[in-house]
Write a structure and sequence with these properties.
4 helices; Immunoglobulin domain-containing protein; membrane; transmembrane; 242 residues; alpha+beta; CD300_family_receptors
Length: 242
């Protein structure tokens, strides 16, 4: 309970009630890069959906209103812009061309208009720090990945993986067929040896006929014994044969 007034008039009693909400408590630390754009989001309770929203800079006991919005349209004022998303119960403030002296305490606020007076409620305090631009940020100021470069790198990686898989498949196939060939070759050699072992033996036959020349002697020498016909009484005389 508070009272205000002067001694010459009646005093007014004010009953102050402080409400708390998980969305609007505590101090949050935010960091921005010098020269870039920083966005700060302020969530608020549903009962203040239609209230005007403000963004303040806090300096001890002094507060300076930087920008205000009374609707859902984005509002721009110098380096500050503000927009209200009533569906998600959040309004956002953008600070462009961030400077070193922008560091400090900030607070979100909404205005409540009463019949005889109005007041502002401050909530969600932000501790802002502006830092130097790093090398990676300077090369990519938007903080986004270069999709063309990343896409090309992805294609190269996929191609290399496919080549390795194909190479492993070819090597595996060669090893598999080599093993099969060795098994087939061993089976073939065994079959050949078994066939040769079952064939009849041949003896060398020498023809001592004085008229037989060398070619005829060699010819008869390769005829197996079981193929030489037995001498028949009606056989043709050797002299008639020559």
């Amino acid at each position: 309970m508070y009272q205000f007034g002067d001694f010459s008039r009646l005093n007014y009693d004010i009953n102050l009630k402080v409400n708390s909400d998980p969305c609007c408590s505590g101090t949050k630390a935010v960091t921005g890069q010098l020269g870039q754009t920083l966005m700060i989001s302020c969530f608020y309770p549903v009962e203040f959906e239609t209230n005007p929203k403000s963004f303040y800079r806090l300096d001890g006991f002094n507060e300076a209103e930087l920008i205000r919005t009374s609707g859902t349209e984005q509002h721009q004022d110098d380096r500050f812009s503000i927009s209200d998303d009533r569906k998600n119960k959040v309004f956002s403030v953008n600070i462009t061309d961030l400077r070193k002296d922008d560091g400090g305490l900030y607070s979100c606020a909404f205005t409540e208009d009463m019949s005889s007076f109005s007041y502002q409620s401050f909530f969600t305090v932000f501790q802002l720090q502006a830092t130097e631009v790093t090398k990676d940020t300077a090369e990519n100021p938007d903080g986004k990945l270069d999709t063309s470069e990343s896409g090309f790198t992805t294609i190269i990686i996929i191609t290399l993986v496919i080549c390795v898989i194909l190479l492993l498949g070819v090597v595996s196939a060669l090893i598999f067929y080599k093993q099969i060939w060795k098994k087939l070759q061993g089976t073939f050699d065994r079959n050949v040896l078994e066939s040769l072992s079952e064939m009849p033996h041949y003896d060398e036959i020498k023809d001592h006929t004085p008229h037989a020349d060398t070619e005829e002697t060699e010819y008869y020498s390769v005829i197996p014994l079981h193929t030489i016909p037995s001498v028949h009484p009606n056989a043709v005389e050797k002299e008639d044969f020559y």
